[in-house]
Amino acid sequence: MNPLPMVRADLKALRWLAFAIPLLVAVAVAMGVGIGAQERMLRQSSARAADDFDLLIGAAGSQTQLVLTTVYLDLEALPLTDGALLNTLSKDPRVAAVAPIAFGDVVRGFPVVGTTPTFAGRWGRLQAAEGRLFAKEGEAVVGADVSFKIGETFKPSHATGGQAHAFQEDAEEETRYRHEDVTYTVVGRLPRLGTPWDRAIQVPVESVWETHGLGNGHAEDEASLGPPFDAKVAPGVPAIVVKPKRIADAYSLRGDYRKGGTMAVFPAEVLVGLYKTIGDVKDVLVASSWISNGLIFVAVLLLLLTLTGLRRRRYAVLRALGAPAIYILLVVWLEAAILLAVGCALGLLFGWGAAALVSQAIESETGLHLAFRPGLNDGLFVIGLMALGSFLALIPAALNYRVSVSDGLRS
């Protein structure tokens, strides 16, 4: 006998419960799916943002803050490293390229970062999407999300570490501390990187130094940009990005500059620690979602037990008319399994949708582009829940299977 017509009739008779039960299960399942998907996207995007920062060197202090400030532009005041180190690194046979990173100014909320033309082009990997890279002092190249147009000029404002400004707007602090005698002209725009540097305005580090009365790091008769700098007059910088020639050179440099008042760090080192913390939090949240799923599954099963109890006489009549006991077991099991499976499938979609929405919020806050992609682990998680739900659905089915025809007719 085909149990599907009976299953269809029973589900139709449930009316609003046939919709409420899957939705209840979906909300619980979506928690676990959303947490897993969000954590995965955060790992991928943060690792991608650090790709161009092979080795960071700074003054002794917090490695985490050095990475957060330099790579993710979470602007905080950093101790300065001796500017003479720029020349030392430039002449080191283990170094392929070196670039200073200098902060301190903002405009319309966008950080103004002083560096070299080589690093602005990411060691030759990037070409300007519009215009060109800066080639002299007073020129600027903007990220993809910066509102300035090619040829537009602006005056930077001094900003202390940790200040937050609304993008595209002049905050009160900017108006108060603006460098009125300094003007930059936008000469290029970089392609979208999917990192916080899409919101950065990159200018020659010499211009940043001169804006703050520190000279330009070169001899008086030199007007070039970037290394070599004059070791006697080069101002200190918050961070130095080093591109080693080989992996072995990277570890050698890291060891050498972890002493003498400096620290050297691979951004991946810091990210591993952050990932561990995020992973620990994710594990707790996922465990909580499993407990929530279990409680909801139990509640749904109790509800199904109640409903099948109300239908006991109907099933007994079918048995009396010749339906085998296995037929009743299949009907009850399919009804419960279908409701739980539909809820799990909806939870997968809800979880992915929630992860995509949260990703947009994180992107607007941090500048990290969290590209949403459905993951295999999400599907396996939901399949596991479906299997668990199908197993638990046997409970009401087995209880009805054991009811005799006479007991069912008298109920």
Strand content: 5-15%
Question: So how many helices?
Answer: 14
* Main sheet record: 11 strands, mixed
Order of helices and strands: HHEHHEEHEEEEHEEHEHEHHHHHH
Q: Count of DSSP E strands? A: 11
* Net shape: elongated
Residue share in helix: 40-55%
Low-confidence stretches: none
Report Rg.
Answer: 31 Å
Average pLDDT confidence is 80
- The N- and C-terminal alpha carbons lie at a distance of 25 Å
Structural class: alpha+beta
Give the count of structural domains.
2
Task: Give a description of the structure.
There is one protein chain. Helix content is about 50%, strand content about 15%. With about 400 residues, the protein is α+β, with helices and mostly antiparallel strands. The protein has two domains: about 5-45 and about 275-410, no CATH class; about 55-265, no CATH class. Strands 1, 2, 3, 4, 5, 6, 7, 8, 9, 10 and 11 form an eleven-stranded mixed beta sheet that branches. The radius of gyration is 31 Å and the shape is elongated.
